[in-house]
Amino acid sequence: MQLNWFKYAAPASFFPLAGKIYPWFYVLAAILAIAGMYIGFFVAPTDFQQGEAYRIIFIHVPAAWMSMFLYLVMAFYASLGFIFNTRLSSMMARAIAPTGAMFTFLALWTGSMWGRPMWGAYWVWDARLTSELILLFLYIGFMALQAAIDDPRRGDKAGGVLALVGAINVPIIYFSVKWWNTLHQGSSINLTRAPSMASIMLWGMLLMALSFWMYSIAVILSRVQCVIVERERRAAWLQPIDQQST
Amino acid sequence: MNPAIHNQSSSFAMAIALLRRDLLLVYRRRSDAVTVLVFFSIVVSLFPLGVGADPSMLRLIGGGVVWVAALLSAMLSLPRLFSSDFADGTLEQLVLSPQPLALTVGIKCLAHWVSTGIPLALMAPLLGLQFGLDSDALWVLSLGVLVGTPILSLIGAVGTALTLGLRGGNLLVALLVLPLNIPVLILGAGAVDAAQSGLGAGAHLSLLGALLIMTLIGAPFAAAAALRISLD
Amino acid sequence: MLKATDLLQLNNLACVKGERLLFSRLSFEIPAGSLVRVIGANGTGKTSLLRIMAGLSEPAAGEIVWNSQHTRLSRSEFLQDILYIGHGSAIKDELLPAENLMANCTIQGEAFSEPEVHAVLEELGLGERLDVESLSLSAGQRRRIALARLWLTQRPLWLLDEPFNALDAKSVEQLCLQISRHVREGGICLYTTHQSVDIASDRQLTLPLDAFCQPAKAQSEHSGLNGLI
């Protein structure tokens, strides 16, 4: 049984597996999204403080959760690739980065949209938004570093070191930004202080978070297929059938 | 140490020799070190020119401005850490040295800090005067920069090591390293603010010290790994 | 120096640069007292081979065994025995020749006194230039400072990548004599060069890299050389 799983650590075997399973994750993502948004937009009660505009929270908070979660997963895969010299792990890290950056941007954008009707400002320097901004820089740095390195193996390993250093820094950055936020008067604006959570709201956010997670898996699996094909293009299994030696 | 090998130098002698060599190199090209200080002053002067010279506002932003300028100046001098050694082949010899590579990185960062961080820390209070900071705040500013700049050198070492020989090197290093240095900025500038409002900067400076110790333990190994990757 | 039974073995080495497979299944035995010339056209991986041997690069496959010990496992012992001089001379513009040489030696764990260093530099024809910053030295003079370690060191295994570059005829001759002496005393020297040089030695081996290069078609099977993963 164990041998069977290890077989999928090779890009050539993982490629067809990824191709078979990712459509199912799109389906799951769609179902969960419909459920989550139904709750978020129709079932959850109007907040007496913030009115209807607060409903953006059903996208903003799950997106923020995903952005941080995906960074840790990316750092995990990148470190695996660096420590154990496995190519597929590093390819997964490369595939995760754009999706993680997308969710970070989504969190920032929806946060900005939330701020406008609430406090009349498109951007407020609250702790979460500022942390998300720094996280976006970390994602961009990771992608920029790998883009600047031509040799794919050097790019894999360098990304591994950078992602690991970044992952260790993320809690430090988060706490120092939180502290910075509490020190400065005038930032009583706090997007993180959401309306007192009726449990139904929590359910809505959870369903959306799961939906985003399923979506991420689907997108990342199909993206890693592209990465595999690009990296392994000289391998025997990718040559035209009539030119394969076997 | 193998007694059968003649002329073998002890690890302490190797470390001292490397430190001495790096400091000698900086000393013989003193203008490089001075350029960093001039950049520091220029950046600080840009802020009043940009936001106006209202004394009460300057006093509010002074700590932060000097800190941001110190960060950028430290970043400007980072290439000096490894790029010349990389270009002429010394870096390969350093990797082949019996001295652990993490220790070599640590020593180079020490030399970098002595030639960049300490002058910045000495100059910072002078620039703080331009913003009307009081003497308590100036002491805290100087001490903070003194404790914070080694962190900048160490994290900068990781960034520089990762980007050795790449195009767009300097900007890419800044992109990688500046977000990681944000906690140093927050703590350092926060310390000056705390000193100014009479709250005492002890907590900030202690946290900065803790951050320094953590970085000292981790960064040299990360930079050593990055160097081996870049030389592969 | 080395005992007559000392042996350097290259087992099944393979090298990938970027996405190209430079060479594979390279196995070679080098006994003590051998002078090995690595030959191959440009781009076949001569420098890469020397760097792999020094431990600067990881091979895509295979290993190096030095006196029955895998160099990857007993790295520090192996490092004490090798002297690698690559393309770069590791000479700093701002230091004097003697300072450069002493620093380079100490960094490698071998410390020498100033008189010893000066004597070697004079023997190599740099006696008049001892007081100038290395900035004003020619490429050939810098190369001589870099190679001066060969006159001071006790290490048995020399890896020299194009050591004769930029050297004038007299220096080339001096270097050839020094290498001959080293090999005669039981040391090993691997070198590459594009020039036609004649180094006297009893045991001369050639390592032709072309023999281990794969033709382009078969490369497709070898992508992903590190096992399946």
What does this structure look like?
The complex is a heterotrimer of chains A (246), B (232) and C (229). Chain A is mostly helical and 246 residues long. Chain A has one domain. Chain A is built from seven helices and no strands. The radius of gyration of chain A is 21 Å and the shape is globular. About 2% of the residues of chain A have low confidence. With 232 residues, chain B is mainly α. The radius of gyration of chain B is 19 Å and the shape is elongated. Chain B has one domain. Chain C has a domain of 154 residues: P-loop containing nucleotide triphosphate hydrolases (Rossmann fold, 3-Layer(aba) Sandwich), CATH 3.40.50. Chain C contains eight helices and nine strands. In chain C, strand 4 and strand 5 form a beta hairpin. In chain C, helix 3 packs across helix 4. The longest helix of chain C is centred in the last third of the chain and has 16 residues. Chains in contact: A-B, A-C, B-C. The interface between A and B is medium-sized, with 28 and 26 residues.
Task: Give a quick summary of the entry.
Chain B has 232 residues and is mainly alpha-helical.
Helix fraction of chain B by DSSP (H/I, runs of at least 4): over 70%
Strand content of chain A: under 5%
Large-scale geometry of chain B: elongated
Runs of chain A in which pLDDT lies below 50 for 5 or more consecutive residues are 185-189
State the low-pLDDT regions of chain B, or none: none
Mean pLDDT of chain A: 85
Give the end-to-end Cα distance of chain A, rounded to a whole number of Å: 27 Å
**Strand-and-helix sequence of chain B, N→C?**
HHHHHHHHHH
Structural class of chain B: mainly alpha
Quaternary structure annotation: heterotrimer
How many β-strand stretches of chain A?
Answer: 0
CA radius of gyration of chain A is 21 Å
Distance between the termini of chain B: 28 Å
Please indicate the percent range of residues of chain B in DSSP E strands (runs of 2 or more): under 5%
Number of strands of chain B: 0
Count of distinct structural domains of chain A: 1
Question: Would you spell out the secondary-structure blueprint of this structure?
Answer:
The complex is a heterotrimer of chains A (246), B (232) and C (229).
Chain A: H1 2-7, H2 11-43, H3 57-84, H4 87-119, H5 127-148, H6 152-183, H7 199-231
Helix pairs in contact in A: 2-7, 3-4, 3-5, 3-6, 3-7, 4-5, 4-6, 4-7, 5-6
Chain B: H1 11-28, H2 30-51, H3 55-76, H4 83-88, H5 90-95, H6 101-129, H7 135-162, H8 169-180, H9 182-196, H10 202-231
Helix pairs in contact in B: 1-6, 2-3, 2-6, 3-6, 3-7, 3-9, 6-7, 6-10, 7-8, 7-9, 7-10, 9-10
Chain C: E1 7-17, E2 20-31, E3 35-39, H1 46-54, E4 61-66, E5 69-70, H2 75-81, E6 82-85, H3 97-107, H4 114-123, H5 139-147, H6 149-152, E7 157-161, H7 169-184, E8 188-192, E9 204-208, H8 219-222
Parallel strand pairs in C: 3-8, 3-9, 6-7, 7-8
Antiparallel strand pairs in C: 1-2, 1-4, 4-5
